[in-house]
Design a protein that fits this description.
Elements: H1 4-16, E1 22-27, H2 33-45, E2 48-53, H3 58-70, E3 78-82, H4 86-89, H5 109-113, E4 116-117, E5 120-121, E6 124-129, E7 131-136, H6 137-142, H7 151-167, E8 174-177, H8 184-196, H9 214-226, H10 240-248, E9 252-258, H11 261-265, E10 276-279, E11 294-300, H12 307-317, H13 320-330, H14 343-348, H15 352-360, H16 367-370, H17 374-389, H18 395-410
Parallel strand pairs: 1-2, 1-3, 8-9
Antiparallel strand pairs: 3-11, 4-5, 6-11, 7-9, 7-10
Helix pairs in contact: 8-9, 8-17, 17-18
Bound molecules: alpha-D-glucopyranose.
């Protein structure tokens, strides 16, 4: 009873003092994951929080958020935002610099810097993310193959093991699954093919449109050659979770996916529990491995009528306790530096140091040079890439058109 009383008094004091707020947070579909943290927040503050679960595609989240924010919607107080959005949506979010100055030193510096625009901290990093090549240890051992370091090694190994597994009766087996739906995830895959092959990063840091070059075209033709051969035709409609479904049924040798897929592949009724590991994304001819920086943050809307409470929620959900809970439950990689040395966490998620290494070397999408136009740029990129993968035009043709589109978008300046 003794221990309960202060919490009750505190909650009712806040409520009667008029401080209790009804908050709404828009997030990815995180399922039950956020509910436990939110329940603790509600208990400690007396506030009530409603979760609005958005579609899983980052591109669809962006379109909806942009509409709400343009309409100065005050129904959503907190937005979970993708790493590429600060320049596009940042002016609709409050500057968190002062409100978070007591905690910012705890964050991985790069994740924090990515959320600053024009000197304003527009969101607080919620989890860090990078992709890896997931591979089946058991099958590489069975067929005496090495983990591929290049795309051509991946292609050859995928084709050979796919053929042998099918001959052995595993009819649904595929060599490689990746995300090739026309959405943000495809831009990430394409950036990795281009840059790892010496084909640049679509738009360079100085704003130059570089995507129309022979190395990028060769990389894209290579990927187009996978569809229907080592990857199912269906990849053209796959987001991350679609590839994870095939993977967890044991029907793929290799998968490109983000950090969240690791603990999930080792839990529940996954058929590949304990049978896989991760490696860096392969490199192209003469290039090096490239992994796109991902991750999400939490931002407070300028149009929120409950700013103080919304800031408190953002800080609470990014506290060591909440981040640790999400990392333990679902492998969401922390943005708080100290958690990477937390013994309980390291024991439960042994892949954490490997992911931390991948974040350190990950490459940004061209959101900084294209500023407020990044989403339009990315939509043109995934469109041109999707056309090529679907057999509508060659890579060279589509990259030439893409160059024209991006140059037009650029106008005088981004
Ligand atoms: C992951 C990444 C995010 C990226 C998305 C693309 O969720 O964390 O940054 O935009 O995948 O599908």
């Amino acid at each position: 009873m003794k221990t309960f009383l202060p919490a009750i008094i505190c909650a009712s004091f806040l409520a009667t003092a008029g401080h209790a707020a009804n908050l709404t947070i828009a997030t990815e579909p995180l399922g039950e994951l956020l509910k436990a943290d939110i329940a603790r927040f509600e208990q400690q503050t007396g506030n009530h929080v409603t979760i609005v679960a958005m579609p899983s595609s980052s591109s669809e989240q962006f379109s909806q958020y942009r509409l709400w924010l343009a309409a100065e919607n005050s129904d959503i107080d907190v937005y979970e935002t993708d790493v590429t959005w600060p320049a596009q949506l940042g002016d609709k979010f409050i500057d968190l610099t002062d409100a978070t100055k007591d905690v910012t030193a705890q964050f991985l510096p790069a994740t924090l810097e990515a959320q600053r625009v024009g000197g304003r901290l527009v969101a607080l990093p919620f989890y860090a993310d990078a992709p890896a090549l997931f591979y089946r240890k058991d099958l590489l051992e069975k067929y005496k193959k090495d983990v591929p370091k290049t795309w051509s090694e991946l292609e050859a190994t995928a084709a050979e093991i796919q053929e042998k597994e099918r001959a052995a009766g595993h009819a649904d087996f595929w060599g490689y699954v990746f995300q090739a739906k026309a959405f943000e995830g495809l831009t990430c895959n394409a950036l990795e093919w281009f840059k790892s092959s010496g084909g640049g990063q679509i738009v360079e840091p100085d704003g130059t449109v570089s995507v129309n070059n022979p190395q990028a075209a060769a990389a894209l033709d290579m990927a187009a050659g996978w569809v229907g051969k080592i990857a199912p035709q269906g990849v053209l409609t796959y987001e991350e979770d679609d590839t994870r479904g095939i993977w967890e049924r044991g029907n793929a040798l290799f998968m490109r996916n983000w950090a969240y897929a690791y603990p999930l592949g080792n839990s529940g009724d996954s058929a590949v529990k304990g049978a896989f590991d991760i490696a860096p994304i392969p490199a192209g001819p003469g290039g090096t491995s490239v992994a796109t920086i991902g991750g999400y943050s939490l931002a407070v809307s300028k149009f929120s009528k409950n700013r103080e409470a919304a800031i408190a929620l953002v800080k609470f959900l990014n506290s060591p306790e909440s981040q640790k809970h999400r990392a333990l439950q679902a492998g969401f990689m922390p943005t708080l530096t100290a958690l990477y040395d937390d013994p309980e966490l390291v024991k439960a998620q042994p892949s954490m140091p490997a992911w931390k290494g991948l974040f350190a070397h990950a490459d940004a999408r061209p959101s900084a040079p294209t500023k407020a136009k990044y989403n339009e740029v990315s939509a043109r990129v995934w469109g041109a890439v999707h056309n090529t993968l679907s057999g509508e035009g060659t890579a060279a043709e589509n990259l030439e058109l893409l160059e024209q589109d991006l140059t037009e978008l650029k106008g005088q300046a981004w």
